[in-house]
Amino acid sequence: MDTKSFDPADYLDDKTTIAAYLSDAFASGDAAEIADALGVVARAKGMTQVAADAGLSRQSLYKALSGAGRPELPTLLKVMTALGLTLTVRPAA
Known about the structure:
Blueprint: H1 15-28, H2 31-45, H3 47-54, H4 58-64, H5 73-82
């Protein structure tokens, strides 16, 4: 039996799906999960284009958004802007 690895980037094809995917990552409160999710979205949109739009090198973007990366808030905001997304704050449930 042949199997194929699941890649969530294959299913992130509209802003609503992307926003839901990232919302789940942010809800986890885990910085590594958030960085990884942003990396998946960036791959879905095209890492080279996202890096250019964010004003970052592709290599630094890959490093920052890996599960082991620890991107700083300005980097996250640049990536979110490049993806056409914004952060929203709401009271905790």
